[in-house]
Amino acid sequence: MSDALKYFRQDRLPHIWCPGCGHGTVTGALVRAIERLGLDKNKVCVVSGIGCSSRAVGYLDFDTLHTAHGRALAFATGIKLSRPDLKVIVMTGDGDCTAIGGNHFIHAARRNIGITTIVMNNEIYGMTSGQYSPMTPKGLLGTTAPYGNAERSFDLCELAKASGATFVGRGTSFHVPLLIDLIEKALQNDGFSVVEAITQCPTYLGRKNKLGGAVEMLNWIKDKTVNAKAAAALPPEKKAGKLLIGELHNAPAPEFAGEYGELIGKVQRSFENIKGGLWECASNSD
Amino acid sequence: MRAKDMSEQKKVFFHVTREKWCKGCNICVALCPKQVLALHNGKIAVERPEDCIGCRMCELRCPDFAIEVKEKGAEPAKPEAAASDFDLPPEADHA
C-alpha cells in the first residue's frame, strides 16, 4: 500500500465515510489495481456523480470530476470522446447509477465506450439517511420502506451484460483480492467495463435491518455470495438466492471512441477530393 | 534441529499503523485469522506481531488505509510519508 499511497491526496485523509463503510475498501482496491498496472497519474481521469461513493474522487490524486447526480457516465462519455488517450474511470453508487443515471448506464454500455465503471453497491441511499434504492433486496427495511421494501431489485451485472457491456464482474468488500483482480482486468479491457462492488453500510442498512456492525455485515455479504467458478459445480439448492461473484462476462467488441475517430477520418478523407477542400465545402453548404 | 531450521525459514512481519486515519471499525481485529490485532482506546494496536502470517487481509480490507503489513528484510525501510503530521512544520521531526 505504501507504493499506492502516492495516488491519494494524503492531506485530505482520513476520509468522511462512516467507520466500517466499505467504500474505502473499494477505493483502496482501485488504487492497488492502478498501482499494479503502473498507470500514469496524468493519463487517468476519474469521474463521479453524487452520493457517498462519489466522494471517493476527492481523495484520489488524478484529474477528477465530481458531477451532477447520475450524470457521471454522461460527463465521462464526453471526456472519452474528446480525449480517447485517457483512461476514464467512473466511480458511482447504486442509487446514482441504477436509479437516476439508469439510462446513461444502459446507453454507455450499448455504445461500448471505453469507460471503466465501478459501482459501489451498498444497497441503500446512505448520504440522504437510508432511503431504499433500486438495488435494495426485497424485504429489507429503509427510511422510505418502514415495513420492508416491496420492490424487486436489479441484477446490475445481468443488466450491463444485456445492454452490451464487454466486461462485467462482481466483487465485494469482503473478497478484496478478487475485487482487485476484477478492477485490473476491467481497466485493461478496451470497451465498457462494469465492476459491481457490494459494500456494507453499517450506519443505515445495517442499523435499520439489525444486521449488526461492519464485521457482521461483511460476514452477511460473505454468506450471500458464491464464486461463479465454484457455483458451476454446486447443486442448484446450494446456490439458490445467492449472488454470483467473479468475472461474469468478457466478450471483446470494437470500442466506440476508436470507431468514432475512424468515422471522422473517413468523412474527412471523402471531402479531400472536392475542389476547395473541406473549408469551401462547409462554406458553400447552407 | 529441525524446528530450528523451520524457524529460520519463517518469515517475520511487522506492521505500519496510522492511528490518525483509523476510525476503530474493528474489521481488521475481527477478521484477522491469528488474532494479532486489537483496539486500544478505539484505535488499532498490534498486540502479537510475532503471530502474523502475512495474509494481508487486514491491510486489504481496511477502509481507512490505516494498517499495512510488511515483511522484515524484504525491502529497505523508508520514512513513512502518510504518518507525517501535516499540521506540524517538517523541522519538528528533527528535535
Q: Kindly state the number of beta strands of chain B.
A: 4
Over all CA atoms, what is the radius of gyration of chain B?
15 Å
Classify the fold: give the CATH topology of the domain at 10-75 in chain B. Alpha-Beta Plaits
Spans of at least 5 consecutive residues with low confidence of chain B: none
Percent in strands of chain B: 15-25%
Would you write up a description of this structure?
The complex is a heterodimer of chains A (286) and B (95). Chain A has 2 domains: 250 residues, Rossmann fold, CATH 3.40.50; 32 residues, no CATH class. By secondary structure, chain A is an alpha/beta fold. In chain A, 38% of the residues lie in helices and 16% in strands. Chain B has a domain of 66 residues: Alpha-Beta Plaits. Chain B has a two-stranded antiparallel sheet with strand order 1-4. Chain B has a two-stranded antiparallel ribbon with strand order 2-3. The model of chain B has no long low-confidence stretch (mean pLDDT 81). Chain B is 19% helix and 19% strand. Chain B is an alpha+beta fold and 95 residues long. Chain B is globular. Chain B has 3 helices and 4 strands. At the A-B interface, helix 1, helix 6 and helix 8 of A face helix 2 and helix 3 of B.
Relevant terms:
A: 286 residues; alpha/beta; 8-stranded mixed β-sheet; 11 helices; B: 95 residues; alpha+beta; Alpha-Beta Plaits; two-stranded antiparallel ribbon; 3 helices
In short:
The complex is a heterodimer of chains A (286) and B (95). Chain A is built from eleven helices and eight strands. Chain A is of the alpha/beta class and 286 residues long.
Note the topology:
The complex is a heterodimer of chains A (286) and B (95).
Chain A: H1 23-37, E1 44-48, E2 63-66, H2 72-82, E3 87-93, H3 94-100, H4 102-111, E4 115-121, H5 156-163, E5 167-172, H6 176-188, E6 193-198, H7 202-208, H8 214-223, E7 225-227, H9 228-231, E8 243-250, H10 256-270, H11 277-284
Chain B: H1 2-9, E1 13-17, H2 27-31, E2 37-40, E3 43-46, H3 57-61, E4 67-71
Antiparallel strand pairs in B: 1-4, 2-3
